């Protein structure tokens, strides 16, 4: 068994019982905030009728629950504030809250519509234990106007259930915590099973035979006998380091110095892994809950801190919303989500830097200063058709270009003519011989050497086209050209045309 297999997983569930109502309470529009005198409900159309989709705490105290027809709610309570339910806005808010909770652990999974699951294994000691972490979450989110109920358990399902239901332990949870649906819950009650403990104390084979395999699986996931994976909002990066401050820091220069120290630490970790970073992401957590992020990318894997610090400096200077400490930063996190293998390099005897890394560093600096979308590079594309074999895209190249051996001439010219120039008065032996003589503009050229053909057929998924036969030719003055015949003699064309597509240097 590996060392990681001994780590006991612990999960913290955050349940926001009145998330939609508290979202509206944060909006500046008047008349949206509920009060004990005028509670707030959110309604949506269900099968042609308006029903309550969410309520605030005051409406719930008056007995108004989701699912109740709006007409019945108005009849029970006068002076209701009614708003439209917006599930998409609630989802966006839940995702923002998940980003806020990344300060506690990188593994945060939203459970729509109103719950977050945090994997806190190995993170609770940073906040004085599990109790201290739970208190810190409640206090921090409470300052933002959100009511949150927390629970910590060994499985995500148990944490989710205990955050919702007032139970001392997993065994005391009601069968509704298994999320089996109303019909199965009623059937379990009729069978005398009211809690998870009642079900877990009986053979699960009988439960599966009577209530379906889903019921037995739900119990096993609740008690930890079956896998219960979560889907975190972001994938755990290969390398991640952070620095937390005992008190909020309001000096931006000090925080940037901490970022440089984190980069040096991350580069040491990359060196131990034999890798280099291609993408570096820095997140600055403010005491008021705002999270500011900055990302830089490199054209080649690097594991030296100095050039990455320079890239972050240029990127921060280009931000439309400058890095503002507000009431102070209380944490800085640096992650390297994209890495690649990087073998140690050896400089030449004259210690001259190779041209490739110098060019990549220049492009990285330009992209950081001007913005990655304003700098275009040619990217190789999987196509045999020459004019489609490359395209301009922002950022660094996605794959390496094929490089011929130094002893061999290039197979294709570096630049192509767009569109190819038509050749006239072509003299060539049929069916597959290269031309011996042709006219380019007003000049007649005589070919003394030729190599080919390189046959390129039209791509079958596009509109049908003619086959091309490419030749590398040299005329009597030493000029080297790249020409092609458009069409095959006797098969596709009776008199194919010839074109000049490129010039060799």
UniProtKB/TrEMBL annotation:
UniProt-listed GO biological process terms: DNA repair
Keywords: DNA damage
CDD domains in alphabetical order: PolY_like
Protein name in the entry: Protein ImuB
């Amino acid at each position: 068994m590996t060392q990681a297999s001994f780590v006991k997983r612990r999960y913290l569930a955050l349940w926001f019982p009145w998330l939609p109502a508290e979202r509206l309470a944060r909006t500046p529009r008047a008349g949206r905030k509920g009060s004990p005198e005028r509670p707030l409900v959110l309604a949506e159309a269900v099968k042609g009728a308006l029903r309550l989709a969410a309520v605030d705490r005051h409406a719930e105290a008056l007995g108004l629950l989701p699912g109740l027809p709006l007409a019945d709610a108005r009849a029970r309570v006068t002076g209701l504030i009614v708003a439209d339910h917006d599930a998409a806005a609630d989802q966006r808010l839940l995702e923002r809250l998940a980003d806020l909770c990344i300060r506690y652990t990188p593994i945060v999974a939203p459970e729509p519509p109103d719950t977050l699951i945090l994997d806190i294994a190995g993170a609770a000691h940073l906040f004085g234990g599990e109790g201290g972490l739970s208190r810190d979450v409640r206090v921090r989110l409470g300052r933002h106007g959100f009511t949150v109920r927390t629970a910590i358990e060994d499985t995500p399902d148990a944490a989710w259930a205990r955050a919702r239901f007032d139970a001392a332990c997993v065994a005391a949870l009601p069968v509704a915590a298994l999320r089996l649906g109303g019909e199965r819950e009623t059937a379990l009650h009729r069978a005398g099973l009211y809690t998870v403990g009642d079900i877990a104390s009986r053979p699960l084979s009988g439960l599966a035979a009577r209530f379906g395999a889903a019921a037995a699986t739900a119990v096993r996931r609740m008690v930890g006998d079956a896998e219960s994976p979560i889907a975190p909002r972001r994938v755990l990066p290969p390398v991640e380091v952070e620095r937390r401050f005992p008190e909020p820091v309001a000096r931006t220069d000090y925080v940037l110095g901490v970022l440089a120290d984190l980069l040096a630490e991350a580069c040491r970790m990359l060196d131990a892994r034999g890798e280099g970073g291609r993408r570096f992401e820095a997140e600055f957590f403010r005491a008021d809950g705002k999270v500011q992020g900055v990302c830089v990318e490199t054209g080649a894997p690097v594991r030296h801190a100095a050039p990455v610090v320079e890239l972050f400096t240029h990127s921060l200077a280009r931000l439309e919303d400058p890095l503002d400490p507000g009431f102070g930063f209380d944490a800085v996190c640096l992650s390297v989500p994209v890495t690649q293998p990087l073998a140690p390099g050896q400089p030449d005897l004259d210690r001259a830097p190779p041209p490739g890394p110098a060019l990549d560093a220049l492009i990285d600096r330009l992209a950081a200063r001007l913005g990655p979308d304003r700098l275009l590079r040619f990217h190789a594309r999987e196509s045999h058709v020459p004019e489609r074999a490359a395209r301009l895209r922002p950022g660094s190249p996605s794959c390496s270009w094929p490089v011929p051996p130094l002893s061999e001439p290039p197979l294709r010219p570096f630049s192509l003519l767009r569109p190819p120039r038509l050749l006239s008065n072509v003299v060539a032996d049929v069916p597959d011989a290269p031309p011996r003589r042709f006219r380019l503009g007003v000049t007649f050229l005589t070919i003394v050497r030729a190599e080919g053909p390189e046959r390129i057929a039209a791509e079958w998924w596009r509109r049908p086209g003619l086959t091309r036969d490419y030749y590398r030719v040299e005329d009597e003055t030493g000029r080297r050209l790249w020409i092609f015949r458009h069409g095959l003699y006797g098969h596709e064309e009776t008199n194919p045309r010839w074109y000049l597509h490129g010039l060799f240097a």
